[in-house]
Amino acid sequence: MNLDAIKTIRIHNYKWNKVKATKFANNFINIISKKYPAGLDSNVYFVLPGFEHVTKHQPIVEFNPVEGIWELSTTDLFKQPLIK
């Protein structure tokens, strides 16, 4: 579990506690794991419902090919590298 993703879920749902936010994320991880047990192509991820608009620490579910499981992670949209 990514703590930034759990924190984002808690903030956007009126300060849910950590247990409720974790259950929410695990529900979607289980659904995706049943549908795609062996994962998908690389760089494919699912955004949790209701968090499509989030641009910083957006909670996503992505496949970890090393461990062979789906897990909660985050991504930052519109993140630009520093150009010097």
- The figure for the number of domains is 1
Helicity, as a percent range: 25-40%
Query: If strands are numbered along the chain, what order do they take across the biggest sheet?
Result: 1-2-3
How would you spell out the order of helices and strands? Answer: HHEEE
> Biggest sheet, in brief?
3 strands, antiparallel
Keywords:
single chain; 84 residues; alpha+beta; 3-stranded antiparallel β-sheet; 3 strands
Provide a compact summary of the structure.
The protein is an alpha+beta fold and 84 residues long. It has helices at 3-12, 18-35; strands spanning 45-47, 58-64, 69-75.
What would you note in describing this structure?
The protein has one domain (3-75). The protein is of the alpha+beta class and 84 residues long. Strands 1-2-3 form a three-stranded antiparallel β-sheet. The chain is globular and about 35 Å long. A hairpin with a 4-residue loop joins strand 2 (58-64) and strand 3. The protein has helices spanning 3-12, 18-35; strands spanning 45-47, 58-64, 69-75. The mean pLDDT is 89. Helix 1 (3-12) packs across helix 2 (18-35).
What topology emerges from the helices and strands here?
Blueprint: H1 3-12, H2 18-35, E1 45-47, E2 58-64, E3 69-75
